[in-house]
Hints:
This protein is mostly beta strands. It has eleven helices and 70 strands. It has seven domains: 3-140 and 281-343, no CATH class; 145-277, Jelly Rolls (Sandwich), CATH 2.60.120; 344-481, Rossmann fold (3-Layer(aba) Sandwich), CATH 3.40.50; 500-505 and 520-702, Rossmann fold (3-Layer(aba) Sandwich), CATH 3.40.50; 728-855, Immunoglobulins (Immunoglobulin-like), CATH 2.60.40; 869-974, Immunoglobulins (Immunoglobulin-like, Sandwich), CATH 2.60.40; 982-1080, Macroglobulin (MG2) domain (Immunoglobulin-like), CATH 2.60.40.
Amino acid sequence: xxxxxxxxxxxxxxxxxxxxxxxxxxxxxxxxxxxxxxxxxxxxxxxxxxxxxxxxxxxxxxxxxxxxxxxxxxxxxxxxxxxxxxxxxxxxxxxxxxxxxxxxxxxxxxxxxxxxxxxxxxxxxxxxxxxxxxxxxxxxxxxxxxxxxxxxxxxxxxxxxxxxxxxxxxxxxxxxxxxxxxxxxxxxxxxxxxxxxxxxxxxxxxxxxxxxxxxxxxxxxxxxxxxxxxxxxxxxxxxxxxxxxxxxxxxxxxxxxxxxxxxxxxxxxxxxxxxxxxxxxxxxxxxxxxxxxxxxxxxxxxxxxxxxxxxxxxxxxxxxxxxxxxxxxxxxxxxxxxxxxxxxxxxxxxxxxxxxxxxxxxxxxxxxxxxxxxxxxxxxxxxxxxxxxxxxxxxxxxxxxxxxxxxxxxxxxxxxxxxxxxxxxxxxxxxxxxxxxxxxxxxxxxxxxxxxxxxxxxxxxxxxxxxxxxxxxxxxxxxxxxxxxxxxxxxxxxxxxxxxxxxxxxxxxxxxxxxxxxxxxxxxxxxxxxxxxxxxxxxxxxxxxxxxxxxxxxxxxxxxxxxxxxxxxxxxxxxxxxxxxxxxxxxxxxxxxxxxxxxxxxxxxxxxxxxxxxxxxxxxxxxxxxxxxxxxxxxxxxxxxxxxxxxxxxxxxxxxxxxxxxxxxxxxxxxxxxxxxxxxxxxxxxxxxxxxxxxxxxxxxxxxxxxxxxxxxxxxxxxxxxxxxxxxxxxxxxxxxxxxxxxxxxxxxxxxxxxxxxxxxxxxxxxxxxxxxxxxxxxxxxxxxxxxxxxxxxxxxxxxxxxxxxxxxxxxxxxxxxxxxxxxxxxxxxxxxxxxxxxxxxxxxxxxxxxxxxxxxxxxxxxxxxxxxxxxxxxxxxxxxxxxxxxxxxxxxxxxxxxxxxxxxxxxxxxxxxxxxxxxxxxxxxxxxxxxxxxxxxxxxxxxxxxxxxxxxxxxxxxxxxxxxxxxxxxxxxxxxxxxxxxxxxxxxxxxxxxxxxxxxxxxxxxxxxxxxxxxxxxxxxxxxxxxxxxxxxxxxxxxxxxxxxxxxxxxxxxxxxxxxxxxxxxxxxxxxxxxxxxxx
Length: 1081
């Protein structure tokens, strides 16, 4: 675009934006009402709003809740016409709850689910809209009675703690509940009583409404099923009439009769239509739905037609006025309530000219953390903006808390800016919009379903905020009501600033620190047992898709039925499955996909995961995305409990980086469809980059729409985040035999030289890449058979046969090395995968690649009759005597053999093993790597645990690829392990100016420890103290720092201070301490 074009474009943008900007610069104020009717504004209010006279005062708002369906009017303020009457400005306003005439000409009651007061906006405007004045009708009078309607709303109970429909306190069978009415009319016409009642009974029930002991309405309601996921109540709408004595109704009674002793009855709302004679009206709002004409003879009354809220009409005063309006507002000029108090609002959001791709919506309490995240996002190249919910309510909800106001604000950005991709809610939202039940706060509200009785179709969902196309938002709770999301939506359901800080720290660390290592090539599947293996079969379907379309990833299958289960009475547990899950998380996996049974706190009936487990997990370097297709695991809208998903998110330094998870009961078929859509999306790229989580989530949901059944799947995480993936690719350049000939098939015991190179998205060599590579060559998938604990045994494939693993150096983007395959391969050539991963730690980049190769056939002959040489190093000590104070030791075991080391496990009795005290055997196959691009040298780096106080024997057994074996045995003496000991300490820098770090070495590695750091001045006063719980503590504790200004109002004086570090074991309570001096200079 040339300069002139840019100037013209800017001018056009300015001109098009000018009216909105000028409007937003006029200050707006809000005021509240609780009842509908005609209100007045006196000149005394003008000074508060900065207006010179009443003729330039405009009022904006909406009657009741904002409509869910998005249209052009949703994106602008709607002005309410006013009437100048002498020295007063009159306006008709609706309260938060009210009655409307629907398109079918029926009376409809709308209860505001978010507020019990309703705010409107007031401000200056050059030419405000005015109420139209009309003359009375000349129609023949055909009616003399109008109705004034009121409602009693039950808001004490939400039976499923879900959805937006609330009910009254219950009535038990055989009892009645008195409902206060306290209304009186002035004519003998029949009173009208409408409403919705509900019964919860396992047998048929009868509900009755009575007045003064006389029943005026009764109905039969069908029973509910006695099932876990059956509907929990049946509603019935009713219409009735009665004629109370003296035209006064004090109470009505709700009664229940049922053979079910636990049956309960409720009312959702009850409408009372009180009849009034047109010759004797008082101030209020009246309805005449029949379309009849009627006469109002009192000339002193102000009468408006308010059938259309935004087009009210004022009837000219006459001694006799004949009217056909269906809804009128009547007021006595001496009794009109006035608006006395207004408060300023911020309308800057409507003047916004910054159009981000990420909106972070939060409360004022979390603003500082949201800003920290925004700054980080900007550094990542993501345009982000932080917006406070209060400002949204003021600008788009007329000062009212309303989830639709949030959606409309998002839609405003989507349409005006054209750049919006994702929205992140920072703060918990609950179904309890009005905080009726107490509990945890409703910080950033979520959308709740209309249904509150069916466990399978009630839900909360943030998907609603992504329905931003014009016409969207009705979102009926059936398949016909499905609407696709246009943007990604995620939520971090934190309830305080500390949780927000923890989560944002996790996000920043995940995105900004190089997440190198082959952990993000691991994808884990976890499946429940029983149910005719449906969960395992579904997992295998997804695993098969992954293998066929994205074979570079390793698959880790934590299928419950492959692990032994231990029975205790009527319950079963699987310690090995539980340990496999924990090990998977510690080693790192890109994402963990669980299919099966669960609830808010648990996965599987065997409790392979319980929310309490998180506290006893160690810190984890690599955090996965969890996908949990199970019931309620990710419920995040309860004010009473924190779900497992929430706890995984807010866990400091462990747990999850995000979750795609369910908040309500779900069907396995729905889970399968959603998971299927997820796997199709998660590997898709936008140009050269993988899609962010918000786009993955949006597309996943849109491809698996299923009425209300999939709406409770939520993204708990940052939608603008991209999962950790390698930056570059690796291309295999050549395979050569011993004499340098190119080969396409590899024979057993054939020395093969390989060359590969790092390439970018343009297939060009990345010559600046230098670092380390890992090569992994695996055999064909092996058939693994489940144990058949609760279903029939089932075989599934697993790529568990390792032919070769090695490491080497990458130089200038090039990889070279040699490998040797074992002799016991199939005689027929079989296809298998060669994977290479490389990392450049200096530049923080990595790369990966995969090649399908064929191996097998006749083995080459090697003249080798000697087994491997074995060397053992414990705690950096390679010579006897081996004497230590700990039962857990770091070990490096080195192997050398001209014929390589066999790690296949194909030869029975010939395994790479560590044997502790002639009892405990540990396979080292998966821990072994060849070194330096060679197959003749390799090592195992590990921690050896399970030693005992006193003498211990360690035996290592190894075999080369020909089958020659060797054994190395050493004796280890453990002394002093029965008491916790601090073995060494480091304090640095010391002297120091701003902070000091502590390193503590101890003899209880792997145990849960409590550590306390104290800083004491020379007078003995504690200046600083910090306590930590260390789960499975490392041998050297390094995460301990005193920042001099931490918890201090002023900087400590220069001089000498005493530190004291106390360490205590949770296992046996033993403890030790160390102390010393710190100098601040």
